[in-house]
Structure formats: structure tokens, C-alpha cells
Amino acid sequence: MGALARQQVASARRRLGLTPAEFAEVLGPVLGWTPSGEMIESWEDSIVPPGDVLLAVGLASQATPREQGDLADFDVIAQLMGHRFCDVEAIYATRSEFTSRMPPHTLFDDATEIRAAGLSLNLLCQQYADDSLRRLIEGGGSARCLFLDPNGEAIKSREREEGYRLGHLAALTDLNIQILLQRVRQRLTAEDRPRLVVATYDETIRFNIVLIDDTTAVVQPYLHAARGVEAPTFVLRRRSTISGLFATFEQTFAWLWERSTLQ
């Protein structure tokens, strides 16, 4: 049994492509204490590894082998969480519940890049202060904002679906576009203005997507006969080396942006 335990340690380390010292560093966060490389070698060759080490090794063995890169980017716990939840960190029943738990300023104040695609983008245009967005851009940040075309066919379909009179959502969307163009972009310097880009698209709307930097996403589906504020809201955190839902919605944003019209 001792030989089998030692073999488990050696097999897990070789599978991940790590040296004994690197494997010790990877096991540290899982164990709550960090062994040395020499201890790893002894657990492979001569000493029966303790029970907590075997449990940690079992968890680590489920991670994806490390590719070329910095060991600091190799996070076993993040990988396991990513595998299990596909980047989903939190789920809220409605947008109202989400905004009460995660106000817009906690999402955007320290951001360096915002990419947003949806219908009217109320989270950014109505619930986040104009001055705050200007400061973000003036501080070197950037924002790409993609609205459903107020003059397109897709927004008319959505108005019928939500039970509004024709032009209701189009007017709200146009108002938000003008907020960004007149109250934010026009007040920026000529040097800063190119970092705030506003565009429209005319495609069937399925999701509201807000990507903050390269790490956080807020995603909502558009439900039949329900307003956006009533839809469930998902918060995603991109896990290192994991191809999860963040990448999926990043690709969706890119697909819509390619089909957009700049304003």
C-alpha cells in the first residue's frame, strides 16, 4: 500500500509536467501548507505520504497538465473550480438582485477595458455615472458599447415580444446612445475620444453581455415576454488556462462587433 501511495504522487507530478519543487508549490494552496521539493522526492521514493497529501495529490491529478508558461499561472484550485462551474461565480434570479449585490461602480471603477453588447445597456448608461465613465476613459481605459439598432428590425421584434408599443425600446436605446455620444464622448479630449466607441447591430438579440477587462463578465439571457430587469443574471470569472463560458461570450461579442455599424 505504501508503494501504491508513492506511485500516486509520482504519477500525478509527471502527468502535470512539473519538477518536484514545482509540484510542491502547486500543492501548497490545496494543502494549506507548502512542502519542499525534497519532501516530494521522498514521498515518491521512500516515505509513505501523509493522508492529506494523498488527498491533495488526488485533486491535483484532475488538473490540466501545464503548458509552457509561468508556474504562477498554474492554479490547481482555479482549474478545478473552472472545470466544475465553467467560470460561473454567481447566479442571481433577476438583474435587480444582481445590482443590489454588485453595484455598477464595483464593476467599472477600476476597469481598464469594458466591452458591452445588449439592447439599451442600461447598466452602463443609466446606472453608472457619466462622470465616472469619463474618468475611466481619461485614465487610459477604453469602452466598446454595442446597442441594438433603434432603427432596425430586431428591436421591433423585441418590442413585440415584450408587449411594448412600437418605438418604446427604440426611444430608450437612442437616448442611451446619445448619453454616451453627447454627455461622455463629446466632453472628452480629442486624444481620449477614440477609446470610447459606440456602435449598433441589427441581429436577433439573445444575451446582454458585459465584459470587464479580461477577467469578469456579466451575462443575461433575453427571455420571452419578460423585461431585461426580470431575467436571471450570471457573473463569470475567467479561470486561468480554462476554456469556459467567459471565452464563449467573448466570442459572441466579437461576432456581433464584426457585424456592427459605428456611430
Q: How would you explain this protein's 3D organization?
A:
The protein is α+β, with helices and mostly antiparallel strands and 263 residues long. Helix content is 46%, strand content 16%. The protein contains 12 helices and 8 strands. It has an 8-stranded mixed beta sheet, with helices on both faces. A hairpin with a 3-residue loop joins strand 5 and strand 6. Helix 2 crosses helix 3 and helix 2 (20-31) packs across helix 4. The longest helix is centred in the C-terminal third of the chain and has 17 residues, at 168-184.
Brief summary of the model shown:
The chain is built from twelve helices and eight strands.
Keywords, separated by commas or semicolons:
eight-stranded mixed β-sheet, alpha+beta, 8 strands, 46% helix, 12 helices, 263 residues
Estimated helix fraction: 40-55%
Biggest sheet: strands, sense, closure? 8 strands, mixed
Strand line-up of the largest beta sheet: 1-7-6-5-2-3-4-8
Mean pLDDT: 87
- State the shape: elongated
Low-pLDDT sequence parts: none
Extended strand count: 8
Strand and helix order: HHHHHEHHEHHEHHEEEEHE
Radius of gyration: 24 Å
Distance between the termini: 69 Å
Strand content: 15-25%
Oligomeric composition of the shown chains: single chain
Please report the number of helical segments: 12
Record the SSE blueprint.
Elements: H1 2-16, H2 20-31, H3 37-45, H4 51-60, H5 76-85, E1 88-92, H6 95-101, H7 104-108, E2 113-117, H8 122-125, H9 130-138, E3 142-148, H10 153-162, H11 168-184, E4 196-201, E5 207-212, E6 216-221, E7 233-237, H12 245-258, E8 261-262
Helix pairs in contact: 1-3, 1-4, 2-3, 2-4, 9-11
